[in-house]
Amino acid sequence: MDWQTLGIEAAGWIGAVLVLAGYGLASAGRLDGRSPLFQWLNLVGAAGFVINTAYHGAIPSMVLNIIWCGIAIVTLARRKV
């Protein structure tokens, strides 16, 4: 595996961990779903998914995660964080 492929796979796995961490913490009541941390976890996690899914040609998943990033960006902008 070359370094580019390794980086793309790492982006996908790190993205998965971040999105799951945010969801898990919010579901456990340890993190507010409107908090900046939750939004940043989702933004960075979804960006990792965008990189990975674009590379693999998974267009529906890529589009979903672009929208997911957009939601996080709008929420953060409204909070001015």
Ordered list of secondary-structure elements with their pairings:
Blueprint: H1 3-27, H2 36-56, H3 59-79
Number of domains: 1
Q: How would you spell out the order of helices and strands?
A: HHH
As a whole number of angstroms, the C-alpha radius of gyration is 13 Å
Query: Number of helix segments?
Result: 3
Number of strands: 0
Q: Using the alpha-carbon principal axes, give the shape.
A: globular
Report the oligomer.
single chain
User: Structural class of the secondary structure composition?
Assistant: mainly alpha
Strand residue content: under 5%
Distance between the termini: 38 Å
Ranges where pLDDT stays below 50 over 5 or more residues in a row are none
On the 0 to 100 scale, the average pLDDT is 96
Q: Tell me about the biggest sheet?
A: none
Helix content: over 70%
Transmembrane segments: 6-25, 61-77
Keywords: Membrane, Transmembrane, Transmembrane helix
Organism: Sandarakinorhabdus cyanobacteriorum
Protein name: CBU-0592-like domain-containing protein
Structure description:
This protein is mostly helical. The chain has one domain. It contains 3 helices and no strands. The protein is globular and about 40 Å long. It starts with a helix and ends with a helix. It holds the Pfam family CBU_0592. Keywords: Membrane, Transmembrane, Transmembrane helix. The chain crosses the membrane at residues 6-25, 61-77. InterPro entries: CBU_0592-like.
